[in-house]
Design a protein that fits this description.
single chain, alpha+beta, 277 residues, two-stranded antiparallel sheet, globular, 8 helices
């Protein structure tokens, strides 16, 4: 007789704070201290993030379109022109083909990267001068590189309905800026060889007649980590020092969801102490 009540009843339960699924985990925040799972420490989370960085090689690189242009055509943003990027004679006003309504708006696109010496925690990129993110960076924009973990196709089945949920997969964002890698460092550490080892199809390397390009790196100044559901994974900022000091041995030993050797009981063991990070 009142079919609309059937639709409204679940919404009323949510409004009153009643979960439709009592077993559903916290999603966007860590739970109170009496949670059923022990939240990984900041360092453990940093190790997992570094492992994702090493195993992946493609991410979403985001920048912000310039907010204004000065009379000379050199686009500024907040008066903070980045002078540590090579100009290489490329002086096009990046706002020329940019609709004014998007001035100051963010844009994120797929980009290749690699973890190369001497600073594998600062992702190496092949910077193409005409690329949107490079033009935005030259105009003062900082950058962010966002990554997320994809379980391998060989991941074993699980009785946990949340284990392989995309919402439960770890992801993170690296906040920082782009700097050019000195030529002597490129040669000394084999930057080009390192990058092409992960991206063999790339032919627009510096010196090619396809695009004007140069080797750069993202200097990481902040790491925002979202390890998964909040009742079993850490959510929040990881200090840069913690990120940079993770060892190769720790990265090799760590296992992510779905990897061979991943032990859910160990990775998400019930709390038995008040371990601090």
């Amino acid at each position: 007789m009142f079919p609309h009540l059937i639709v409204l009843f679940p919404l009323l339960r949510l409004a009153l704070g009643e979960s439709l699924s009592p077993a559903a985990p916290h999603i966007f925040a860590n739970p109170p201290e009496q949670a059923a799972y022990e939240i990984p420490t900041i360092h453990e989370s940093a190790v997992l993030a570094r492992r994702i960085l090493n195993l992946s090689s493609i991410g979403t690189l985001s920048t912000v379109f310039p907010a204004s242009s000065d009379a000379s055509g050199l686009v500024q943003q907040g008066g903070n022109l980045k002078d540590h990027l090579p100009n290489q004679g490329y002086t096009e006003d990046v706002s020329a083909a940019q609709p004014q309504k998007f001035a100051g708006s963010p844009i994120g696109l797929m980009e290749y990267y690699a973890t190369c010496d001497p600073h594998p925690f600062n992702p190496t990129i092949l910077a193409v001068s005409i690329a949107t993110y490079i033009r935005n960076a030259r105009s003062g924009s900082d950058v962010s590189l966002s990554l997320r973990w994809h379980p391998p196709s060989s991941a074993p089945p699980s009785s946990d309905p949340y284990l392989y949920s995309p919402a439960n997969m770890p992801r993170f964002s690296l906040q920082g800026y782009i700097e050019a890698i000195p030529e002597d460092e490129v040669k000394r550490y084999g930057i080009q060889e390192c990058f092409l080892d992960r991206h063999g199809e790339v032919i627009w390397t510096p010196g090619s007649d396809i695009h004007e390009s140069w080797w750069g790196r993202i200097i990481v100044e902040g790491i925002y980590w979202f390890g998964g559901f909040g009742d079993r994974a850490r959510i929040g900022w990881i200090p840069v020092e913690e990120w940079a000091n993770v060892t190769n041995e720790e990265i090799e030993k760590a296992r992510l969801v779905g990897e061979d050797g991943y032990d859910q009981k160990t990775a998400r063991r019930p709390s038995s102490s008040s371990r601090k990070s």
